[in-house]
Amino acid sequence: MTPRQRRMIALIAKEARQTARNRTALGVALAGPIVLLLLFAYGVSLETERVPLGIFVEHSTPDTRDLAGAFYNAHYFHAVIMDNRRVALDKLATGEVGGLIVLDEDFARAAVAEGNAPVQVLVDGTDARIARQVSNYAEGAVATWLAQRTLAGRIGSANSVGSAPRVWFNSEIKSRYFLVPGIIGLLMAVIGPLLSALMVAREREQGTMDSILATPASPREFMYAKLIFYMSLGVAAMTLMLLVSVYVIGVPFRGTLRPLVMATMLFVACNLALGLLISITSRNQLAAVQLTLTTGFLPAYMLSGFLFDLRNAPAPIQWLSLIVPSRYVVSILQTTLLVGDEWRILLPDLGGLALLAIALVAGVGLLLRRRMS
Amino acid sequence: MTDAIISTGLVKRVGGAAVIDQVDFTMPSGELWSVIAPRGGGRTTLIRLIAGLTRPDAGAIRIFGRDTVREATAVQDIIGYVPQGVGSYDTLTVGENFKLHADLRGVTPDICPARWRHVLGLSGLTHLTDHRAADLSLFARRRLALACALAAMPRLLLLDELTAGLDPASRMEMLDVLRRLAGDEKISIFMSTTYTDEAERCDGVVFLTDGRRVACGAPRELTALAARRMRAVAVTAADRHATAAWLRGQDGVIDVEVQRTCLKVITDHPDREVPSQLTVALPSATTAPRLDDAFVCLLHDRGVAMLAAPVLHATAPPRPPSGASVLEVRGLAARRHRRVLVHGIGLTIAPGEIVGLIGPDGPGRDLLIRLLCGLERPSAGVITIGGIDLGNDRRRALARLAHIDSAASPYPDLAPVQILQFFASAGSLRRAERESRIGSLLTELGLKDVAAVPSGSLSTALQWRVALAAALVNAPALMLLAAPRAHLDPLTRRLVWSDVGAVAAAGTGVLIASQATEDAELCDRVLLLDFDRIAGPALPAKVAETAVQKRPGSATLAALSALFARLRQGRSAG
User: In chain A, which residue's Cα lies nearest the Cα of B161?
Assistant: First the structure.
């Protein structure tokens, strides 16, 4: 064994011992991600289900009852039927209902007589996404109801041209399946840099870093020993999260392990190297945390395609997202989990991730050399 | 034999300003040297330069003939370095910390056990190998850091403030260890310190101010230089402050240090006559010239002027009824995290009395000070400040207390007058009274000309005055002063003490927490505190009753060490 190897082993063993005895670090690295993952997966949803919807019926007729029933039975809505206009409008104003279907005096008469029923749909536009969904669904429901009425009245039962949608890759269209890979990427983008940045900042504050660097161990050995150890911790955290995603949350796993393992290693390396870069430039633990949140969390949140589809972003933002590791890993996870090993997507993503990892790890070495001289 | 360290024309700049400026010195092999400097004086930078952790901008250092930049690896193989702070990993045991350093230094496992026993013996850690570093006392942690640096038996040991925060007895024990290392093991040692009593025990000392070398040489030679310019003047306890104030105004007097029965006067020239009939011969036990006196002489000769000591007339606190004490503590006990840290403390301070709280930094002392400041409640005992029970009437009791926890300005961005107005607004004085009091404090403490300048830009001496003025603005009965000596230059230290004398002369009681023996010598009485020194269940802090009662006329280092030793013996026997 060369002296350098012995030094690396000693340094890695030191990190392992410290971590094993430091409950906070273990909690942050392993328990935290699982708790947050479950919280996000079951607490956050992009779907609008059971939106409270008011149906104001001024004059109850079989027609109004029929249409109200269509809303009543839809699982998108939690419909409440009301007969007082003022109360109904109040409820919309206070946000108790997300939308209001107004079936007034004219409705039934016009519907039957003229074939175009005047249905007023009032929508609370505060949340644009829910508003759009409510208005779309309401329009569709009324149109369908009207069409059915017309057909039933004139031709009886008849076949008409229809569409039978079939959704690929996420047949239940559960946003959870789509979100989980994003959440994994987001959590790792915070926890990875935080772990490595904090540990180095602490060594600096306590003077332990100086005492190591005054030995034959070089700054680079010191940093790379940390990188290697935290790699294993980060990979363990990510493996745990993937296991929970597939076996607890029930996200399908249609690909194979190979791209998943490669992506995990590269992604963890990126984030840890980012943390080390932060720790080299920041003076204390507080500065390290602040810098981690701005360089790790925010880009991962906004530029990874986790919530906001990058294809809709302006070109400069799309280019900027190319240096955000989460962007690649979110795409890789979504592909391997939901689609399968589609290498036409995976190869460019893995390549980008690898380039980033190499640049960041090399950056650590370069910056160290600059800082030390 | 080649010299251990040769520094020639050494310069290190940080952001344009020179932190180390043209420093030359040569330390022979096998000696124990110290670098002494005030905060920001360049101590740590010098040590880091020697350790090769940072590169000089000009000049060079040679360690046993090897250049620290061009032969960095060769140099790292022969040095051991202990940085500031704890320097060892909290969660690792003593043994694991040591093994890490041994591995990093290539001490192969087959020779490690022997080395292990040897170094542990040297640093006295044999019975603590399996304890985690976090559980050790500060003293044991410092010995562990020393042991780690010794792992490969270096030829040169670099120690950055290894003794900071330790009590006098522990510091002297550490110095004994270092002397043995230099003597028996032939290890050259270069250490930094803020305590001149340690520097006096070294073979050589480098004194830096603002990165420049002010003095370099054997402590004995430096003090001999000062001795010829020093006089002692016998006084009585009653007239000592008045005499000192008069003497300070005389021609050629640089500094007057007030002791209980005599004044130590430093003049500007060996032939200077001190105009007093009472002059007695040097040296006596406490008036012997110290290294600190030599630094005062040297700084004066370089044209650094000292501020005049104040005479506090208008700002004296209301006189308490005769016989009343400004502080009375009875049967004080408190615990933190279910550990008894303070136990059985009793103390009385009379108006105008200066009492020293001598003991190591640590949770015990912190807790005691927090108790006195009303920040924490004791589990037993009574604290009375200025005749008011802290437990019954916290607000009124605390109004009589002023706490200075740092000799620097409390708000560097504010001007002195703003700081005083702020502190006064927290007190009970009426507006008109407040304004006149602030005005007279600014005049008496020599802050009038700088009253509107941001206090952070002032000199250390003036910043201390700002802190003092803020403390005095509400006419406290008791002033609590934490570690006034650490990190200050010798002149400011003298100023702090002459100011404290003036505060006491005006009738305020003063309690000073410190680890320096020089501080102990200047107190009317000292209270020795000993907190948990070894691993294991924490032992409560104890008070050496004998020491409290005793006037520390001869409370020199040896006496203090002996008292600490007795204290500990009594405890292990009990």
Answer: A207
Q: Are B519 and B485 in contact (CB under 8 A)?
A: yes
Amino acid making up residue A195: L
In this structure, are residues A100 and A80 in contact, taking their beta carbons and an 8 Å threshold? Answer: no
pLDDT digits (tens, 9 = 90+) for A330-339: 889 888 888 8
Residues of A in contact with B48 (CB under 8 A): 210
Picking from B376, B381, B318, the residue whose alpha carbon sits closest to that of residue B345 is B381
For residue A95, CA distances in Å to A71, A344, B91 come to: 19, 46, 54
Mean pLDDT within B533-560 = 39
* A195 in Cβ contact with B74 (< 8 Å): no
Q: Phi-psi region for residue A349, left (φ > 0), alpha (ψ -120 to 50) or beta?
A: alpha
Backbone angles phi, psi at A322, to 5 degrees: -65, -20
Closest CA to B173 of B138, B135, B139: B139
Distances B380 to A260, A360, B385 between C-alpha atoms, Å: 63, 58, 16
CB atoms within 10 A of CB A20: 11
CATH 3.40.1710.10 describes domain A51-152: yes
Q: What is the pLDDT of residue B41?
A: 81
Q: Which residues on neighbouring strands pair with residue A313, listed in sequence order?
A: none
Identity of the residue in A6, A11, A21 whose CB atom sits nearest the CB atom of B91? A21
Judge: B92–A212 Cβ closer than 8 Å, yes or no: no
Spatial distance between the Cα atoms of B525 and B505, rounded to a whole number of angstroms? 16
CA distance B275 to chain A (A): 52
Q: Considering only CA atoms, which of B179, B168, B143 is closest in space to residue B567?
A: B168
For chain A, the structural domain boundaries read 3-44+174-372, 51-152
Token digits for B273? 């006559």
Residues B55, A206: C-beta atoms closer than 8 Å:
no
Nearest to B79 among A21, A207, A214 (CB): A214
pLDDT digits (tens, 9 = 90+) for A129-168: 777 777 787 777 777 777 777 766 654 444 445 555 566 6
Q: Taking CB atoms and an 8 Å cut-off, how many pairs form between chains A and B? A: 79
How far from chain centre, in Å, is Cα B86?
18
